[in-house]
């Protein structure tokens, strides 16, 4: 069976599994992809096919993304860089040093812990003796950055506007970001006797900033120590949206799933991966070796299930960190998530090990109408009952797992949002 036949076989199998409506998803594998698959197969047979698919699945980690962060001393550049990368431990090896004076004398890059090719660059402040505004764009080599964040802790200056104009000249995107909004709100609570209207205050601040900047760009209000509040997640969403497609993918899969917008972006990309994994599974099954393809299929499913959980922020480490932040035990956190979502079954999904999740998903696929004829036997983790699964079965099982994982991620975000709202109510 050659590469074209494998693609068609999986497409035909998937079309027959009416319960999952998956056939349209295979349109993501383009004619160009099929040509490259055939070339890989002609060069190295099934091994070439599998290697090509693996490269495709991991290509996002090879894509460079460079985002420049500029602003005056005290604007909170380092804190912002740490917040975007989800690093709050000053002993973490990748922590950006925070200081009340300018700590940057030259552009310094900070990689994400999970992807060394996505970099946030801390640029020295402009308008100083060392970095005069007129020479700043050239000194900082603006052309090498994909987009820019211009930070301020209070007001935007003429220097900020000059920097923005230089960015416009090279046709890159930039974002004015007013930082430290948490301090603003706390100060408002101290000076006002009645309950404050946060929405009105934010509108007034944003309007003031935009009037001073004219038509130069949109203003985002954030606080680097409250990444779930204000416009922080909106800023990340906008950063992603305005990058070229290949860089969007790299940034989305690198960011933590801290908002539904990012979760939705991740879901799109995780769904795109599934046809490729189905093809990989089918490629192994096309050359059946007793026991080997079944074990390989199980390994593929477990690996992708772990990847899904990590991407959606519901792996063990992420859930433990969330429970700690909410100042409750992990068990209580899970119970509250289930209660908030109205789905007690979520606790089972959370508590299950990945192997058990895979086993359950496969079992659900097997009993679905139309799937039985696609496989002779199904490998359950640690127990091989045959020669392996079809690509369609792998796809359907992974899709079921992904939908369950999304439900857990949504419950996690709701849990955090509810907790933040409760804190606000107590403050008022």
Strand content: 5-15%
Rg (C-alpha, Å): 25 Å
Question: Biggest sheet: strands side by side, in what order?
Answer: 2-3-1-4-5-6
- Overall pLDDT confidence: 79
**Helical residues, percent:** 55-70%
Secondary-structure element order, N to C: HHEHEEHEHEHHEHHHHHHHHH
Oligomer: single chain
List unreliable stretches of 5+ residues. Answer: 13-23, 287-292, 366-389
Shape: globular
**Structural class by secondary-structure content:** alpha/beta
Contiguous helical run count = 16
Largest sheet descriptor = 6 strands, mixed
DSSP, total strands: 6
- N-to-C terminal Cα separation, in Å? 68 Å
Give a description of the structure.
By secondary structure, the chain is α/β, with parallel strands linked by helices. Helix content is 56%, strand content 8%. It is built from 16 helices and 6 strands. It has helices at residues 3-16, 31-58, 77-84, 136-139, 158-169, 181-191, 198-213, 232-241, 245-254, 260-285, 292-311, 316-325, 330-341, 345-351, 354-366, 391-427; strands spanning 65-71, 108-112, 115-122, 147-152, 173-178, 219-221. Strands 2-3-1-4-5-6 form a 6-stranded mixed sheet, with helices on both faces. Helix 1 (3-16) packs across helix 10 and helix 10 packs antiparallel against helix 16 (391-427). The longest helix has 37 residues, at 391-427. It is globular, with a radius of gyration of 25 Å.
């Amino acid at each position: 069976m050659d590469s074209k036949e494998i693609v068609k076989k999986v497409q035909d199998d998937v079309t027959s599994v009416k319960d999952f409506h998956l056939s349209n998803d295979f349109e993501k594998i383009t004619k160009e992809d099929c040509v490259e698959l055939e070339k890989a197969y002609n060069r190295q047979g099934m091994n070439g096919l599998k290697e090509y698919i693996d490269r495709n699945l991991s290509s996002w980690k090879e894509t460079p993304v460079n985002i420049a962060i500029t602003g005056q001393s005290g604007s909170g550049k380092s804190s912002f860089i740490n917040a975007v990368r989800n690093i709050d431990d000053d002993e973490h090896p990748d922590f950006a040093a925070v200081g009340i004076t300018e700590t940057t004398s030259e552009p310094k890059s900070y990689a994400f812990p999970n992807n060394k090719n996505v970099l946030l660059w801390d640029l020295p402040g402009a308008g100083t003796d060392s970095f005069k505004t007129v020479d700043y764009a050239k000194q900082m080599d603006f052309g090498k950055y994909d987009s820019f964040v211009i930070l301020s802790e209070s007001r935007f200056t003429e220097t900020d506007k000059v920097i923005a104009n230089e960015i416009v000249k090279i046709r890159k995107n930039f974002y004015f970001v007013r930082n430290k909004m948490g301090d603003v709100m706390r100060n408002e609570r101290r000076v006002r006797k009645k309950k404050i209207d946060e929405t009105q205050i934010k509108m007034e601040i944003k309007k003031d900033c935009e009037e001073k900047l004219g038509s130069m760009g949109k203003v985002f209000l954030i606080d680097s120590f409250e990444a779930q509040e204000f416009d922080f997640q909106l800023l990340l969403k906008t950063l992603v949206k305005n990058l070229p497609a290949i860089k969007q993918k790299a940034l989305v899969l690198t960011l933590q799933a801290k908002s539904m917008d990012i979760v939705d972006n991740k879901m799109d990309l995780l769904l795109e991966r599934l046809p490729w994994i189905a093809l990989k599974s089918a490629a192994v099954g096309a050359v059946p070796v007793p026991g080997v393809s079944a074990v390989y299929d199980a390994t593929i499913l477990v690996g992708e299930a772990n990847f899904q959980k990590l991407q959606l922020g519901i792996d063990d480490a992420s859930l433990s960190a969330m429970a700690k932040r909410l100042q409750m035990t992990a068990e209580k956190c899970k119970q509250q998530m289930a209660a908030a979502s109205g789905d007690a079954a979520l606790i089972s999904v959370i508590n299950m090990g990945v192997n058990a999740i895979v086993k359950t998903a496969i079992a659900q696929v097997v009993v679905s109408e139309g799937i039985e004829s696609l496989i002779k036997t199904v490998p359950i983790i640690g127990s091989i009952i045959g020669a392996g699964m079809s690509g369609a079965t792998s796809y359907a099982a992974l899709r079921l797992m992904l939908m369950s994982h999304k439900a857990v991620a949504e419950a996690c975000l709701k849990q955090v949002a509810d907790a933040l709202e409760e804190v606000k109510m107590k403050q008022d």
